[in-house]
Amino acid sequence: MGKSVDQVNGAIRGNPPSAGHVGVIGAGAWGTALARHLANKGLRVMLWAYEPDVVASINGQRENRRFLPGVALPPSLSATGSLAVAVQDCDWLLFAVPSHAARPVLQLMEPLMARPVPVVSATKGIEEGTLKVITQVMQDVLPAGMHPMVAVLSGPSFAAEVCRDQPTAVALACSDDRVCRFLQASLVTPLFRVYAGRDVLGVQLGGALKNVIALAAGIVDGLSLGHNARAALITRGLAEMNRLGSAMGADPRTFYGLSGIGDLVLTCTGALSRNHQVGVRLGRGEGLDVILKDMQAVAEGVRTSHAALGLAERHGVDMPIVREVCAVLFENKSCARAVTDLMERAAKGETEASPTGGERS
In this model, does residue 298 exceed pLDDT 90? Predict the structure, then answer.
């Protein structure tokens, strides 16, 4: 990787966003939807899939029958099972691998990349062992010359609705303004609005933590506790997200934007939300093992809940909703008991300060 960041940024400034070659790493529903979006915009897209049947169905039937059935894929989108082919000669990369597989895939990618290019994380999760967000994992693995070109894309965006060309707005964050503008221009269309910013950490925390709150919202719905309870849960969940993000150095305003409250509301209420569906089934008495065995795609909130609690403990932040979700998932606590314990905590002011300086839920 011999080019400097300045050389790459120079190429970025001269590269028309309506042309070029993009590698998309990860062919789940979201990765495939983004690949389709970019291909329809006029870019040449190579989509890497781990599963051979996904590669075959995309190239043979122009459809990802496993993860995004019924969605026609354009001819300018090709699939491969080879990471070397996926990253070859790309102008930039979009990374949509589940959080638990992010580091191994990045480690396989790194020696295959001939030059530094921008990399956008579209993964909404936290690495369990290290408690790092995905761009931090990228910076662990990728060369230092690529660190300023690491970005994140997040926000309220069900893959199925993006593929139906329904209006969507998302947040894009990168520490390098020139790279951010290039990526924004490469992604934006009249039906896919992209807002740019610099809070890489906050955008990722919003995208990851909302999945945990969505599990809790699903539990509330599974228990048939009503709209009042769900609205309260979402609101207090946002407070927990903001509290942890602020303690970690994120911009509190981010959590009131698309990657925060926008994605939180969607994931806690939308029928297409996998995490909400898991919560509903938990609330109705099904076991987690049975639920996950039935699911084709990953529900990131299950893994993220444990990581979120670890971050809360590391930073001395009170996150009672996250704590109760973890107790339900990993300690066999009943959903009804978890809700009761949340409701019967000592009464306090809505913005009452905690001993560590943040508000308490």
Answer: no
CA dihedral 152, 158, 163, 169 (to 10 degrees): -60
User: What's the pTM value of the predicted model, to 2 decimals?
Assistant: 0.92
Answer yes or no: 41 catalytic: no
Mean pLDDT of 333-360: 78
Instruction: Please provide the DSSP assignment of 188-248 as one string.
Output: -BTTEEEEEES-HHHHHHHHHHHHHHHHHHHHHHHTT--HHHHHHHHHHHHHHHHHHHHHH
Which domains occur in the chain, in start order? 5-198 (3.40.50.720), 205-343 (1.10.1040.10)
CA 195 to chain centroid: 16
- Of 141, 127, 54, nearest to 300 by C-alpha is 127
The pLDDT score that the predictor gives to residue 2 is 42
The b-or-e profile of 87-115 (16+ CB within 10 A means b, else e) is: beebbbbbbbbbbeebbebbeebbeebee
Identify the active-site residue in 210, 293, 333, 348: 210
Residue 352 has pLDDT above 70, yes or no: no
Percent of all residues in the chain with a pLDDT value above 90, rounded to a whole number: 87
